[in-house]
Each structure stands twice: as C-alpha cells, then as structure tokens.
Amino acid sequence: MNKSVKPAAFSTCPHDCPSVCALDVELLEDGKVGRLRGSALNTYTAGVICAKVARYSERLYHQDRLLKPLRRVGAKGEGRFEEISWDAALDLIATKFLDIEAEFGAQSIWPYHYAGTMGMVQRDSIHRFRHAKGYSLQFDSICTNMAWTGYVAGTGKLAGPDPREMAVSDQIVIWGTNPVATQVNVMTHAITARKKRGAKIIVIDVYRTETMKQADIGLVLRPGTDAALSCAIMHILFRDDLADRDYLAKFTDCPLELEAHLKSKTPEWAAAVTGLDVAQIEEVARLIGQVPRTFFRLGYGFTRSRNGVVGMHAAASIGAVTGCWQHEGGGVFHNNGAIYELDKSMIEAPDLKDPSVRALDQSLIGRILTGDEAALLGGPPVKAMLIQNTNPVSVTPEQELVKKGFAREDLFTVVHEQFMTETAQMADIVLPATQFLEHDDLYKGGGQQHLLLGPKVVEGPEGPKENLYVLNELARRLGAPDHPGFKMTAREHIDWMLQHSGYGTLEELETTRWIDLQPDFETSHFLNGFGHEDGKFHFRPDWGRSAAPNKPASGQAMGPWTTMPELPDQWDAIEAADDRHPFRLVTAPARSFLNSSFNETESGRKKEKRPEVWLLPDEAALHGISDGDLVKMGNDRGIITLHARFYEHLTPGTVISEGIWPNDAFVDGKGINTLVGADPVAPYGGAAFHDTAVWIRKA
Ligand SMILES: Nc1nc2c(c(=O)[nH]1)N[C@H]1C(S)=C(S)[C@@H](COP(=O)(O)OP(=O)(O)OC[C@H]3O[C@@H](n4cnc5c(=O)[nH]c(N)nc54)[C@H](O)[C@@H]3O)O[C@H]1N2
Ligand SMILES: Nc1nc2c(c(=O)[nH]1)N[C@H]1C(S)=C(S)[C@@H](COP(=O)(O)OP(=O)(O)OC[C@H]3O[C@@H](n4cnc5c(=O)[nH]c(N)nc54)[C@H](O)[C@@H]3O)O[C@H]1N2
Ligand code: SF4
Ligand SMILES: [Mo]
Predict the structure, then answer these.
(1) Which pLDDT band holds residue 673 (cuts at 50, 70, 90)?
(2) pLDDT greater than 60 at residue 6
(3) Taking Cα atoms as reference points, which of 180, 167, 178 lies closest to residue 46?
(4) Could you tell me which residue ranges the 4Fe-4S Mo/W bis-MGD-type domain spans (predicted)?
(5) For the chain, what is the largest distance between any 2 Cα atoms, rounded to a whole number of angstroms?
(6) Which ligand has the shortest distance to the CA of 44?
(7) Model pLDDT, residue 241
C-alpha cells in the first residue's frame, strides 16, 4: 500500500481515460475550485496530469452548464425548452415510462449510459435501475471490446506487469496509442526510464503523433497492418535465434507451429503490407530481441479496425516469443481490469436481473432507433431512453441513422447531462447533472493499479443532481422492487462495496486516498502461468469460443469471425480503399478534448483550431486540393465538410482527422462519425472508428 497523507482537498479524475489520476484540488478563498494537480504521492500519477483537467475550473464554472431541468416545447431537436422543477420532471418521466411499459413492454425502454464518469456508483447504478424494471440491457461495445478480446485471447487474463515498471525498463514499445494526448502518465514513466537508464522509446502509429515526436524510433505504418508487422518481427526473432525457446516451451501453446507458420512472414512481405522499409522492421525486431527488459504498452487505437482483435493478439504474441515477461521492466501491458475484485452487487443488483432480457448493442444505436430488426434482437422497438454519461449523437458510428432515430416523434428521450450536448438537444426532458467535484465516488484505474476515492469537494450550484439521485428517485416513482441499493447514499455505497470486497472502509480510504492492488511480481508477469486453464499463452485462440471479458449476451461470435486467422497473421477484413474511395480515414483523439467532453471549453477549441482532415501534399495535389481548402469527405454513409491540412508524416492513402468536434463545428452540422460504420467487429463486436474508406474533393 502507498504511503499517503490527506491534503486540503483531493479527488480522482472521473473521465474515460486509462490514467485515472489522483488529484490534489486547490481551493480558493472564495470556496471555489482553483487548479487541479496530479498527486505527487500517488506512484502512478506521480504529480502529472493532462492540461485539460489541470484547468478544470473552466469546465466546472462554464457559463453553458445545465442548471435546471428542462422540458421540450419546440419540435424535436429544435432546441426550445422551458424550465420545470425536479419533481415535475421526475413525475413526468415516470408517467411516460409507465405508459410506454404498459403499451409496449418493459424492454421498449432502453437506459443508455457510458463512461463519461468512471465512478462506479454514479456510472453503474443505472444497471440496478434497469434490472429492477426489466428494461433492456446494454451490450457495451464501443470502446474496449476489440482490445480486450485480442489481449485476453493470448494471455487469458486482462492484467499484466505493473505499469510503473516502465520506469525500470530498458526499452518501451508504445504501440497504437498516443499517450501524450490520451494517457499522459505513460510518458512520465517512459521518460523516467530514458533519463535514468537510457531506455529507448519505440512508437508505432499511423501518423507522426506528438508521442512519436518524443520517440527514439517511430514507425508510421498503414492502418490495420499491425499484425503483419508483428509477424515479421516474430519471423526475425525465430530466424536470428532471438526467440526464447525454453520460455516458449514452458509457457506457450504451440511454439513449433507458430515458428513454421511464420517462415513465410518475411520482412519483405511485411514491408509490402505495412508500407514500412525492410530495414526499419529489421532494426526494431533486433532491438526487441536483444533487450530483455522490453515493456510493450499496447493501446486501443490499433484495435479500432475490423481486424483489430487479430492485430492486438499478434502484437501481444511478440512478448511470448522473446519471453520479456520474465524480467522486471519487461512484459506486455494493456489494461488491469481483472485485478480489481470488487463486489458491485449493491450497486448493480444482479439479483434483480432477468436473464431473458435482451442486451442491445451500444454501437448499433443508429440501427436500433431506426427499427433495424436484427439490431433489435427480435424484441420490441425502443420507445423511451434514459441517457447518462454519454453523448451518442456525437460519438457513435453511423451518425445519420443516429440522428434520424433521435428525431422520431414517438421516441421519449431523457438526457441527464452537464452540458447541452447534441444528444441533450434531441431530448424531451433534460436533467442537469453534477460534476465530479460535487459528488462522491470510487474509481479503479484501467491503465494503472489503484482503487481510488473521489470524494465530493465542493457544494455545486443549486439545480444539478448526481446520477444516483435520479435513478433512486425514478425507481421509487416507477414502483421498482424494494432494493436497499435504492435507499443508499453514494458514501454508503462506497463503504458497502469496500467492506464487501475486503478493502476496508470508507473512513480508512478517506485517509489513505487509494489502495494499490498490483498483484505480486510472479502473478503480474504470469510466471505461475497465464490465465487460460492450461496456464499457457495462446498463439492459437479458438476465436469462436475464445476467452473474452465482454461478449454479447448470446455468447455467439459476431461479424466474419469464421475467416479469422488461426495463428497471428495479417487478416484481410478492413474497409479497403477502392476506386470510389481512395483514402482510408483514421479518427484519432485530439489532445485537448476527451471524446466529446471538453469540446465545449474555449481553451480546448482554441488549441485544436477547427475540424480538419490531414493528408499528404502530393495526394492532395492529385485531387486539386490546397492546404487550408474547404473539402467534402464522404462515403455511402454520408458526406461531411471540413478543412484540409497538409501533413507529411503519413503513408500514402491514409488521412487523419483528430478529435470529436461538436457536430455544429462542421460547416453543415455533420460530425466525423457520419462516415464511420457500425458493423460489429469480429468476433465479439465493437466499432471500427479508425477503419473507414472515404473520398475527398474540394468543396
Ligand atoms: N486527449 C484525449 N484523451 C483521451 C481520449 C480522447 O479522445 N482525447 N479518449 C479516451 C478514451 S475513451 C480512450 S478509450 C483512450 C484511447 O486511447 P488510445 O489507446 O491512445 O487509443 P486511440 O485514442 O483510439 O488511438 C490512439 C492512436 O492509435 C493510432 N492508430 C489508429 N489506427 C491504427 C493502426 O491501425 N495501427 C497503429 N499502430 N496505430 C493506429 C491513432 O493514430 C492514434 O494516434 O483515450 C482516452 N483519453
Ligand atoms: N470518431 C470517433 N468516435 C469515437 C472514438 C474515436 O476514437 N473516434 N472513440 C470512441 C470511444 S473509445 C468512446 S469510449 C466513446 C465515448 O463517448 P462518450 O461516452 O459519449 O464520451 P464523451 O463524449 O466524453 O461524453 C460523456 C458525456 O457524459 C457527461 N457526463 C460526465 N460526467 C457525468 C455525470 O456524472 N453524470 C452525467 N449524467 N453525465 C456526465 C459529459 O458531460 C459528456 O457529455 O466515443 C467513441 N467515439
Ligand atoms: S490524464 Fe486522463 S485521468 Fe489524468 S487527469 Fe487527464 S483525463 Fe484525467
Ligand atoms: Mo474509450
């Protein structure tokens, strides 16, 4: 456990970010919140947070914050609302939900949520609510599914070496993630290793990101070709006797088959697929093979492709060939989800869950709301929604369908929000939500290993209420079964969860602030065996039945999974460019936004400037496009309008658009997700945000 003291005020960053930073909160004399700082006492946060959260007061005291419940008076989406009281709003919602339930059945109501707050009380109480009423479930597919499935297919468990060990590595491979923007603490520990041990930093991405600018070696490859690179690296490791054969024999399922399979995966073959030079591939493979303490930090970005699960599994396989797992500062890390054994039964009430209720795919919301029968899983149409912590009209794929769905006159939509997002604009009832410094919660770090308390620090303005309040009040009005979870405060939930999980009490955590749950070295490095029953790393997953932390309720594999390669290989499943769509678009994150959060802040918008598509100057010229031109970008899903910018560090045929800008920041109000497809990625679903074929022409 970490040594820690209690500063004047502290909390935890609630945003959807692997870092989950421990925060020190400056309180000004007028009682307002000043700057937020990373706790120097927390060994993962190590005193560093991102700029957007450091200036959080801008979001907390933003003039556009929602402060009053609102009822729609104009047409759907027109933006005309009138203020009503909380009681009137909750009564109205309850009446509507009961009427809809009576007419169309409970499953026609779909509570929809995501990780706008990662606090387990405020985020996950919606499950208790839905189970209590038999409302439709949500299959969470939008973010982690491909990455987790691919990693766990190899390791059998969503865990890995202590992420702080990066600081004692001799080489760090940052693959398919842009931590300077998306999880800044990775850089803290990587730079420590460079300063103290001369560690090399290798970055693999599809354009020269801010992270790559800080790297010793940067590989810019074609999107969706990471498995080819991985195979060539492993080919070289076997070829040059850099594979650890003892380790392979002891810890992996089929090393001889893998070696034979990789014979044809030469660097020349991979160069043709990835667009890299043979020399670059040889160099990186040699470094990976020769430096025992190599730490792979595998991100989400490279898994947001239709072959992303295979890409993740292939990259993770490299560590099982070198055996870097055996060393401190070595191994392959993606996420620590499985180290937290928390009893969430009071929050989620699984005892009230009816296993026959359908789980609608979060990413398919556009198809679901427009009546696609397959997406509705044979059940009734969705007639009402309660939305918390997410902004689907901006962030989900197939935006044209999503907008069409939310515009339905016969859909009753309740949005509980901090800001008037695109989704709130489409609502019948808008409820104002507290921000994290105004409510209590408990957080777990996916990219690190602490369980952290995020207590309420300030009294918020009058008006906004926490998620828990809305759910408990609605449950009462809707005649939900009497469950103790509906009568508890957030602090009581936290205390209950801690005590029932064997992690002490709330009172104790208020002193210690966080608990370090990193398992011991042997466990973390899988030296007692990997997570599968046979204890081995699996080079050959059984894709139709592979272990995965999150599967659709049917348990059935989805998408074109039957053609997934049996062993790591380049899989031809991406949305390929063609004559009509010569470019492949990657919608990478912006540093100053977090998904669509923070895109309401003035400073963030200033830094990011405007929605742009970056492309190679030569390619732009072929299409008659100059730097700064307004262009149209489109495919069969829709057309958007934004500015072109020349960028030299891309592979031919690739274009980048950073950030989820507000839809209305685009010339015609159509956001970037107008272009992205929602077809489920094999084998267990997910959205391929970085895998979209498009055309571009001058507007
Ligand atoms: N500033 C900021 N921080 C964020 C977010 C944000 O939007 N902005 N989002 C948050 C959320 S919800 C999440 S899940 C995490 C995600 O954080 P990351 O794990 O970093 O994943 P992504 O943001 O999807 O993409 C990261 C990188 O993957 C690259 N990439 C795309 N396709 C490929 C490919 O085929 N191969 C390779 N090698 N690279 C590829 C992109 O160019 C991008 O630089 O970040 C969180 N933090
Ligand atoms: N083009 C493209 N689209 C993407 C991605 C991409 O890389 N490219 N990334 C995808 C990924 S990885 C993800 S995870 C999704 C995320 O997408 P979302 O889950 O929609 O995340 P945000 O856009 O941050 O929206 C979260 C909302 O929750 C609200 N909120 C925050 N805290 C609270 C609270 O306590 N109570 C209530 N009621 N509301 C709260 C915020 O104000 C904000 O509007 O986006 C996906 N969309
Ligand atoms: S790096 Fe991530 S967790 Fe840390 S403060 Fe920024 S958004 Fe929050
Ligand atoms: Mo995400």
Answers:
(1) very high
(2) no
(3) 167
(4) 6-64
(5) 73
(6) 3
(7) 98
Strands across the sheet containing 200-205: 217-220, 200-205, 171-175, 294-298, 331-333
Could you identify the atom of ligand 2 that is nearest to the CA of residue 115?
Answer: 19
Pocket around ligand 3 at a 6 A CB cut-off? 13, 15, 17, 19-21, 49-50, 53, 183-184, 594
Report the nearest-CA residue for atom 3 of ligand 3. 20
- pLDDT band, very low/low/confident/very high, at 547 (cuts 50, 70, 90): confident
Q: What is the predicted pLDDT for the residue at 4?
A: 38
Alpha helices by DSSP H, 427-567: 467-477, 490-501, 506-512, 521-524
Rounded CA separation 555/463 (Å): 42
Measured in whole angstroms, the distance separating CA 669 from the mean position of its chain's CA atoms is: 25
Task: Return the ligand number nearest the Cα of 597.
Answer: 2
Q: Is 74 exposed, middle or buried (0-12, 13-18, 19+ CB in 10 A)?
A: exposed
Q: Reduced to 3 DSSP states, what percent helix, strand and coil does the chain have, rounded to the nearest 5?
A: 35, 20, 45
Going by pLDDT thresholds of 50, 70 and 90, the confidence category of residue 5 is very low
Which pLDDT value is given to residue 546? 86
Closest atom of ligand 1 relative to the 222 alpha carbon: 35
Backbone phi, psi, residue 211, to 5°: -65, -45
Residue 78's Cβ-count burial label (10 Å; 0-12, 13-18, 19+) is exposed
| 295, 333 contact by CB (below 8 A) | yes
Task: Among 24, 184, 436, 599, say which to mutate for ligand 3: greatest number of ligand atoms within 8 Å of CB.
Answer: 184
Q: Whose CA is nearest to atom 4 of ligand 3?
A: 21
Which residue type, as a one-letter code, is found at position 138? Answer: Q
pLDDT in tens, 127-179: 999 999 999 999 999 999 999 999 999 999 999 999 999 999 999 999 999 99
pTM equals 0.98
Angstrom distance (rounded) from CA 656 to CA 233: 26
Rounded CA-CA distance 308/141 in Å is 13
Q: How far is CA 200 from CA 197, 323, 330, 533, in A?
A: 9, 19, 13, 35
Give the rounded distance of the alpha carbon of 325 from its chain centre.
25
How confident is the model over 359-384, as a mean pLDDT? 98
Task: Ligand 1: list residues with CB < 6 Å.
Answer: 16-17, 143, 175-178, 181-182, 204-207, 209, 223-224, 226, 299-302, 304-305, 586, 588-591, 593-595, 690
